[in-house]
């Protein structure tokens, strides 16, 4: 189970709306339960300044993330995964999206047991839809139910 704070969802909606038709994204920060069966997403960051984007693609940059993640780690929160937007589209993950989260799951340098991929789509301001996918170290992914979070 993955639960998102209202602040995390609000920040994703605001960033997706501000991107004006381009994809955007960032990282998810929060906590896992002790057995990794559930996660609490406290924060969804904005896109780092060195990110690149277009209407149907997003490449997350790294500028400022090391500092932010170290600060979060010292406060007891951890990198949980990635989020990005699909402007005016359903938030279903593409094969590229699934490959990216699988690579993160397999890369031990992320120190993330079960990375989360969250994609926000639909009408961001009126009827945002959030799709959540989990990956594990074996490279398998599991799509969770979509979450509606209208205003």
Structural class: alpha+beta
CATH superfamily: Cytidine Deaminase, domain 2
CATH topology: Cytidine Deaminase, domain 2
CATH class: Alpha Beta
| Residue share in β-strands | 35-45%
Number of helices: 3
Whole-Å distance between the termini? 23 Å
Helix content: 10-25%
Tell me about the largest β-sheet.
Answer: 8 strands, mixed
Task: Report Rg.
Answer: 14 Å
CATH architecture, please? 3-Layer(aba) Sandwich
The secondary-structure element order is EHEEEEHEHEEEE
Tell how many strands the DSSP assignment holds: 10
Principal-axis shape equals globular
Overall number of structural domains = 1
**Contiguous uncertain segments of 5+ residues:** none
Overall mean confidence score, pLDDT: 89
Detailed description of the structure:
This protein has 151 residues and is an alpha+beta fold. It has one domain: 3-Layer(aba) Sandwich (Cytidine Deaminase, domain 2), CATH 3.40.140.10. The chain contains three helices and ten strands. Strands 1, 2, 3, 6, 7, 8, 9 and 10 form an eight-stranded mixed β-sheet that branches. Strand 8 and strand 9 form a beta hairpin. The longest helix has 13 residues. It starts with a strand and ends with a strand. 37% of the residues are buried.
């Amino acid at each position: 189970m993955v639960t998102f704070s209202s602040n995390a969802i609000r920040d994703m909606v605001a960033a997706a709306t501000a991107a004006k038709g381009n994809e955007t994204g960032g990282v998810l920060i929060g906590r896992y339960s002790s057995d990794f069966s559930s996660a609490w997403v406290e924060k969804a960051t904005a896109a780092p300044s060195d990110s690149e984007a277009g209407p149907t693609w997003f490449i997350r940059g790294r500028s400022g993330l090391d500092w932010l993640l170290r600060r979060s780690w010292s406060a007891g929160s951890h990198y949980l995964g990635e989020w990005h937007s699909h402007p005016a589209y359903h938030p279903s993950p593409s094969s590229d999206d699934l490959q990216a989260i699988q690579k993160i799951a397999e890369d031990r340098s992320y120190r993330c047991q079960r990375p989360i991929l969250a994609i926000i789509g639909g009408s961001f301001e009126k009827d945002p839809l959030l799709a959540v996918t989990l990956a594990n170290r074996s490279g398998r992914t599991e799509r969770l139910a979509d979450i509606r979070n209208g205003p």
